Amino acid sequence: MIHVRKSEDRGHFNRGWLESYHTFSFGEYNDPDHVQFKTLRVMNEDWVQPGKGFGMHPHKNMEIITYILSGSLEHKDSMGNGEVLSAGELQRMTAGSGIYHSEFNPSETEATHLYQIWIYPEKPGLTPGYEQKAFSVEGRQGKLQLVASSEEEGDALKIHQDARLYLSQLDSGGELTHSVESGRSLWVQVLKGAVSVNGQEAFAGDGVTLENENQLEVIAQQASELLVFDLA
Hints:
By secondary structure, the protein is mostly beta strands.
């Protein structure tokens, strides 16, 4: 079974300093039909204006992944971490038993475009943790690049849930396939471009769910970038 969650159907808020699209219910956006998919709870696409951001605020019992598409984001947290994420970098924060953090666009001229993703953890009360990594573009060109996993696999970020997160970039006309294990489901988030996912058209901002499918087949209609979630 395949379903396309269209970009234009997402919750949308523009507060001037922040423009945000919510795939699932979040904050003021309440959509009973789109609360989560498996353990995937939040898929927010944000644009943060120069010099603006989120002040110190709390999180608990969530695996939070941030991916920067363009610009940069300055992160500070109650664990003492203070880092700047640049375009192409990913951050994993285990909120666990409780954490405070802030996120600001440090640029005076360039907006920051990012995705923030929340995944439910395997259990509550985990010890808070933080990771930040850049992955080679070559490693995802025309294929799936593992960037987060519950297992210790290569350079992948460690997340505390039975989930695997991949990045992929495809040139126009490029194709990729991925076998889906029995009992698992996929969420494909189109970050840029336009693709066909198992025969269904999807464009930037769209999400495609695959349930009870044994294979993912993607064909790029133009140069595209994807996030693929393999979920229990």
